[in-house]
Request: fold
Amino acid sequence: MSKRKPTTLIAGKFGSRHFGTKPYLADAVRLTGKDRPVALYIGAASGDDRGFGTALSGLLQGAGIRKVVWPKLAAGKKKAARGARAALDDADLVFVGGGDVEAGIHALRAADLVADLHAAAKRGVVFVGMSAGAIMLGERWIRWPRDGAGDDEAETYGCLGIAPCSLDTHGEGDRWQETQSFAAVRARELGKKARAYGVPSGAALVIDGDGAMQARGDAVTVFAALPNRKAKVEKKLEAAE
Reply:
């Protein structure tokens, strides 16, 4: 029987001392139910940037994590992949940091860690993603073959699928253009309605183990598209606080 716990998808916030993780990160740490929890930090999307990873590790510890394990997966070394797999055995929480979605997914697939991450989620390890890391935890995302290409040339690709939806973060500045493109392209691929969730800066989307969704901090906009139609706002999930 699955012991899956809620997944916390944080948009992040530029210029914030806490990167927009407060209070969502501390709430997620409490979901572990451990007094001295251990976290696995995945920084592949940022190329395992030292400054960014160090800052996020500090935030994790400030939120109640006793120990942060950070295998450098971006370089594609087998030793790092082995270290991540071993760390998952002891981890109570997995935090996926921001950066480039496709680069992060490529690194995790190259390390052959996707199945291990799913097994960890199933046995009750808490998952948290921030910005691109939140998108990585979703089902799919969008890419174009080159700069300037239109949505008619775009395609979607698989992400981790820990969260049962596809989402975008802090896209409010351009009125969620990429989010809407994703919904339309995915609808074309599927031949039926497709959705995408827009989580604005400073907000989070928390998804329970049974799939129930709760917006936090600000409303989450749900976009939907039918094949060969533009995406439209289907509804808004109002924030719980």
In short: The chain has a mean pLDDT of 96.
